Amino acid sequence: MNILILGSGGREHAFAWKIAQSPLCNKLFVAPGNAGTALVATNLPIAFNDTEAITRAVQEQEIDLLVIGPEEPLVKGLVNRLRANKKLAKLRIVGPDQRGAQLEGSKDFSKQFMQRYGIPTAASRTFTAETLEEGLAYLDAHQVPIVLKADGLAAGKGVIITESISEARAVLTDMLTGGRFGEAGHKVVVEQFLKGIELSVFVLTDGVNYKILPEAKDYKRIGEGDTGPNTGGMGAVSPVKFATAKFLNKVEEKIVKPTLAGLQKEDIRYQGFIFVGLINVKDEPYVIEYNARMGDPETEVVLPRIQNDFVELMVATADGELDKIQLQISPQTAVTTVVVSGGYPDTYEKGKSITDLSTLDDVTTFHAGTKPGFNGHVLTDGGRVLALTAVANSLENAVMKSQKAARTVQFEGKYYRKDIGLDLIRYQD
């Protein structure tokens, strides 16, 4: 098969790394890709939301399977446009259509969806600029902390936890009238704060059948001890010690099954990944959010633990035959440490030369924000630069190997969290 992956981050490099291992893969392309994907695939200089260029590439490269990595093209209806093209009738696509992607594209939509189907989540209400005064009164009647979420896509940074009513009032006003998150903040979901420990569960579905992939815990805050502003993710661990078989069974019965039943009832065609962001509150799962794709950097710890031929999984998803697949998961632990540019998630510089990559022999190096430089050099090209994944028989060893790699790789201004996974090592039931 000829296969095309859309995207340019660590998630897409992980997809390419896994797909390239399959004997079913003939030619592999990534659009636009990065310096890492170029090691296992052919990068195409195409933006992942350029429908015309993607259509041409599918036809010219005789693509059989398309795997869509990022959320933006899904939310903007790329799948619908490709499926409407009769010339692409035989193209297999892994990724939901525009209505399905609303699970991620609109926090308000996903909240209403959960309420309709009795899926456990925090109490909330949605406000707009026109209902700002109601929103302020709603805040005044609530205890802190209070969570405020931009309704639309905000690159993983549209969630603010406020510690006082005055702060909550100022943030809500700024989001609705000050343009803090632009178009994404035209609606704001005000949500009850749930206290617990977070994890992510990933579901692969063909629209009817499903497989629950390995769970993971990611680390969103920039600072150690989960301090500072949110980022796209500073590291991840899989499996998660507190996600017992009993707890994951509750997730399946109370969340996964009702979610898929709701999508079918609303005639939403969903063939792809559902990321369920959860919080464990006294051993009960609550949904924080849905994503319509795999998480990043969670993909970099989930995929190394999947032992199946990944192309077989993707084809079964597109063909509605996931029930024929028996998922095989490694019992080992995977840990990834994300190395970022100095200043991230705020202002940072690009184009810094990365050295010592060739010495990283104890980890899998997934490129997130990189580009090829002259004479074989690799340059930084984003906030999150590398995800360094170690797999070992114990959490402690995986943490040690991943952190050693993060210390070893060098570029000007590099930063990484030194506490990835340590909370799980200390965790007691």
UniProtKB/TrEMBL annotation:
Sorted alphabetically, which keywords does the UniProt record give?
Answer: ATP-binding, Ligase, Nucleotide-binding, Purine biosynthesis
Write out the catalysed reaction.
5-phospho-beta-D-ribosylamine + glycine + ATP = N(1)-(5-phospho-beta-D-ribosyl)glycinamide + ADP + phosphate + H(+)
- Signal peptide residue numbers: none
GO molecular function term, any single one: ATP binding
Q: Which protein, by its recorded name, is this?
A: Phosphoribosylamine--glycine ligase
Q: Pfam families of this UniProt entry?
A: GARS_A (PF01071), GARS_C (PF02843), GARS_N (PF02844)
Kindly list the biological process annotations in GO that this record carries.
'de novo' IMP biosynthetic process; purine nucleobase biosynthetic process
Instruction: List the Gene3D superfamilies hit by this protein, alphabetically.
Output: 3.40.50.20, ATP-grasp fold, A domain, ATP-grasp fold, B domain, Phosphoribosylglycinamide synthetase, C-terminal domain
Q: Write the Enzyme Commission number(s) for this entry.
A: 6.3.4.13
Sequence similarity: Belongs to the GARS family.
Class of this enzyme: ligase
**Is Ligase given among the entry's keywords?**
yes
Q: Supply the source organism for this entry.
A: Larkinella knui
Q: Which residues form the ATP-grasp domain?
A: 111-319
Task: List the SUPFAM superfamilies hit by this protein, alphabetically.
Answer: Glutathione synthetase ATP-binding domain-like (SSF56059), PreATP-grasp domain (SSF52440), Rudiment single hybrid motif (SSF51246)
Q: In which pathway does it act?
A: Purine metabolism; IMP biosynthesis via de novo pathway; N(1)-(5-phospho-D-ribosyl)glycinamide from 5-phospho-alpha-D-ribose 1-diphosphate: step 2/2
Q: Known HAMAP family for this protein?
A: GARS
